[in-house]
Design brief:
Helix content: 25-40%
Distance between the termini: 24 Å
Oligomer: single chain
CATH architecture of the largest domain: Alpha-Beta Complex
Number of strands: 18
CATH superfamily of the largest domain: Medium-chain alcohol dehydrogenases, catalytic domain
Length: 382
């Protein structure tokens, strides 16, 4: 039976009232877990019970103020859950379905969507910027005042109302903690390799920045048959994990000879370099280790004011390509089920990316660990 909920419900959510507060977050506690009101799903919307939510740098960048968003806001965008009620007009989901969230809702009718580029959906970008669901609605409130949605999801809560366009139905047998990763880390990292760069068998590939997205890109490159895999990071523990996941050369980015070592080991540079750290220093390194005729891809999100420059003549004389990748250039309804099948077949061991399961009430401490770069992907289990 497809339930249509018509009354607001009281849920618990992690609310960010202000950004840019001091660390450690375990003491300043920027996220307050509190009771809020969640309105029922409107037309084209779905109520889901959140079962697992991953902590991502996109959430951290709102907490620390690097990427300003309208506040107060309920954060969280990488999640898996169960459908519990449907708004009018939603006929292709049923109560009890397991779903994964996508952090850009795609309307399906704007020019980018019609060109199979839903990551660039214009109404989706507008709603994400203003902190609403697709179409401008807000379903969260506290003390009679509206709360903003994070990337159309707001997954750091026991329940969420989201647009149908933000959901992908998945296999019920997939554990929630692993399913959640497909909504951001896997979609962004693997998608950058498969869709944006179109890595080919035998390619030489480097990944700079070994968080959840970067390590997912490493797994994606291996699944595509890349011949030489280079992993670059500042944390030796992450380099060790990358080696276990198939990297043949692991280089600490702080090494003075990092560029020379990589270029020598790859006979002049890699065919594809992926910058996943969200810093101009990492992007500079990625560009310098890309060979003539190669492609440098960035999926990291630096501060809005960050600038990156390249020698103009090199783009011409060396036929270099620099590309951005958002949402892994994915069509989520197509790609997430495909990547899940790769996981089930053993081609994408994304379960290795889960560093820890954390209790909801320890979310601030978990963001300290993320800011300290001592973890890959922490997952809240609701």
């Amino acid at each position: 039976m497809n339930e249509r909920r018509s009354a607001a419900m009281r849920v618990h959510a992690a609310v960010l009232q202000r950004s840019g507060g001091p660390r450690p977050y375990a003491q300043s506690r920027p996220l307050e877990i509190t009771a809020v009101m969640l309105d029922p799903p409107g037309p084209g919307e779905v109520l889901i019970a959140i079962r697992a939510a991953g902590l991502c740098h996109s959430d951290l960048s709102v907490i620390d103020g690097v990427r300003p968003r309208p506040l107060p806001m309920v954060l969280g965008h990488e999640a898996a859950g169960v459908v519990t009620a449907l708004g009018d007009g939603v006929t292709d989901l049923a109560v009890g379905d397991h779903v994964v969230t996508a952090f850009v809702p795609s309307c399906g009718t704007c020019e980018p969507c019609l060109k199979s580029r839903p990551a660039l959906c214009e109404p989706g970008a507008a709603s994400n910027t203003q902190g609403s669901l697709l179409g401008g609605t807000r379903r969260l409130s506290a003390c009679g005042r509206p709360l903003h949605h994070h990337l159309g999801v707001s997954a750091f809560a026991t329940h969420a109302v989201v647009s149908r366009h933000s959901l992908i139905r998945v296999d019920r047998g997939l554990p929630f903690d692993q399913a959640a990763l497909f909504g951001c880390a896997v979609m962004t990292g693997v998608g950058a390799v498969v869709n944006t760069a179109q890595v080919f068998p035998g390619a030489r590939v480097a990944v700079i920045g070994l968080g959840g997205v970067g390590l997912a890109a490493l797994l994606g490159a291996r699944a595509c048959g890349a011949d030489a895999l280079v992993a670059v990071d500042l944390a030796d523990a992450k380099l060790a994990l990358a080696q276990e996941l198939g990297a043949g050369l692991c280089v600490n980015a702080a090494a003075a000879d990092a560029v020379e070592r990589i270029r020598a080991a790859t006979h002049g540079g890699v065919d594809f370099a992926f910058e996943m750290a969200g810093s101009t220093q990492a992007m500079d390194l990625a560009y310098r280790i890309t060979r003539r005729g190669g492609t440098t891809v960035t999926a990291g999100l630096p501060p809005p004011q960050a600038q990156f420059s390249v020698p103009h003549v090199g783009l011409v004389a060396e036929e270099r390509t620099v590309k951005g990748s958002y949402l892994g250039s994915c069509v989520p309804q197509r790609d997430i089920p495909r990547y899940i099948e790769w996981f089930k077949a053993g081609r994408l061991p994304v379960d290795r990316l889960v560093s820890a399961h954390i209790a909801f009430e320890r979310i601030n401490e978990a963001f300290d660990a993320l800011a300290d770069a001592t973890t890959v992907r922490q997952v809240i289990l609701m």
